Amino acid sequence: MPEFIVEWLNQNDIFTAMTLMEYWDGLVTTVQLVFLSLVIGLVVAVPLAILRTVKNPFVSGPIWLYTYLFRGTPLLIQLYIIYYGVAQIPGIQDTFWWTIFREPFYPALLAFTLNTAAYTTEIIRGAIVATPHGEIEAAKAYGMNWAMRIRRIILPSAARRAVQAYANEVIFMLHASAIASVVTIVDLTGAARNIYSRFYAPFDAFIFVALCYMALTFMLVFAFRKLENHLLRHQRPVSS
Amino acid sequence: MFDLKGYGPELAEGALVTVELAFFSLALAIVLGLLGASAKLSGNRFLAGFASTYTTLVRGVPDLVMMLLFYYGGQVGVNMLSDYLWEAYDIDFFFQFDPFISGIVTIGLIFGAYMTETFRGAFLAVETGQIEAARAYGFTRWHTFRRVMIPQMLRHALPGIGNNWQVLLKTTALVSIIGLTDMVRVAEEAAKAERMPFHFFIPVAAVYLILTAASELFIKWLDKRAHAGVVQGN
């Protein structure tokens, strides 16, 4: 390590190697939690969004209800219901599920996944509904069946329209994940709360963690801007 | 109805706290949003820079972290100030930072940033011809702003305000974490004491659903009114 960093670390009481390790572990937990819930949420959301556009109300109705319930209530309540609720399911403590759900990480992961899947379903549905009719007509004229139209025309086209809103959802999820600290998970915010209560130094503890979140946010913003440029490169004006 | 084990009145009071918190935060957010949007569009580089820093900072930090910073940090800040005042001027000054005020300040600041973007877009959507016409009638800048820009901007801003309000309403749940006895907090305590999580959290979730659904209807009605004079389509 460079000399001046060593010196700086030696001079302050709060940001010692030990607390920095706590922050690092918190960062790892936050990233794991957010990344896993987003990936699973997206995988669940794509088929749900497709089914949500089906005309049959027995197919689209339940999905509408699911997204309505999860978008209409705070994530914190959803987390509490799942976190406190699983322990109350009769008999669960005797099954192997209990070894998984006893850890607060998994109830939180479930709550976050269900929440982000609901928002993502609506984002993708909006993008699917907005597909220009000409594209679908052209696909039909080529003799493509429903599944092929979805796969080759509708989904790629919808992805381009959805990417911007989805980027917002990803950032929203990163920020929302801070509430995991409420159910005793030591994520970034949890680490900050521990360090705050140990040193009674709110500014050091929380401003540092705010900067960490900001760095993560701007990395995501940058990555999504690159992705957007890539997906929409055919729309770029032809320049010299 | 089902039995709330005597927590009914407390839950109802908590629901009232939630609604009050949401309304005060919305008011603060709208004021900050108008200020922010005006600053961004003012053409003054210093003001515009200040407003952009504000919106960028807010969008990079989770609401909970900001709330903890204001709540715990606010108290330490006040304590430092009162120590200083006592040492330097013999003034006895103390102020207890309560979660309600911290909640309003944090949520107001966060949604002020989102409102800034909403209002900025809405101001830009007002036709320049309208502003030119107002100027031609000899309106001052302030007059143009109040009589021409604001009424026409509101129509464009309404969907954005509505979305922000829906998110804001759900964000108020976070204030239970810093100890405000809103309905989430009451439900949490009741659920722990009675060991009945579903029994208490589901009614609270239902209240949030009712609030968001009612707001949706109200915003639709407002939107219709705001578009009363607009001929749409062809």
Automatic annotation (TrEMBL), chain A:
Keyword terms: Amino-acid transport, Cell inner membrane, Cell membrane, Membrane, Transmembrane, Transmembrane helix, Transport
One Pfam family per UniProt: BPD_transp_1
Main localization, broad class: membrane
Ranges where the ABC transmembrane type-1 domain occurs: 27-224
Location(s), subcellular: Cell inner membrane; Cell membrane
Similarity section: Belongs to the binding-protein-dependent transport system permease family. HisMQ subfamily.
Protein name: Arginine ABC transporter permease protein ArtM
Originating organism: Marinobacter persicus
UniProtKB/TrEMBL annotation, chain B:
Keywords attached to this entry: Amino-acid transport, Cell inner membrane, Cell membrane, Membrane, Transmembrane, Transmembrane helix, Transport
Source domain of life: Bacteria
Membrane topology: Multi-pass membrane protein
InterPro entries listed in its UniProt record: AA_ABC_transptr_permease_3TM, ABC_transp_permease_HisMQ, MetI-like, MetI-like_sf
Subcellular location: Cell inner membrane; Cell membrane
PROSITE patterns membership: ABC_TM1
GO terms of molecular function: transmembrane transporter activity
Residue ranges of every copy of the ABC transmembrane type-1 domain listed in the record: 15-219
Gene3D superfamilies hit by this protein: MetI-like
Membrane spanning stretches: 15-35, 47-73, 93-114, 198-219
A Pfam family hit: BPD_transp_1
GO cellular component: ATP-binding cassette (ABC) transporter complex
BP-aspect Gene Ontology terms: amino acid transport
Predominant subcellular localization, coarse grouping: membrane
Entry's family note: Belongs to the binding-protein-dependent transport system permease family. HisMQ subfamily.
Name the record gives this protein: Amino acid ABC transporter membrane protein 1 (PAAT family)
Lineage: Bacteria, Pseudomonadati, Pseudomonadota, Gammaproteobacteria, Pseudomonadales
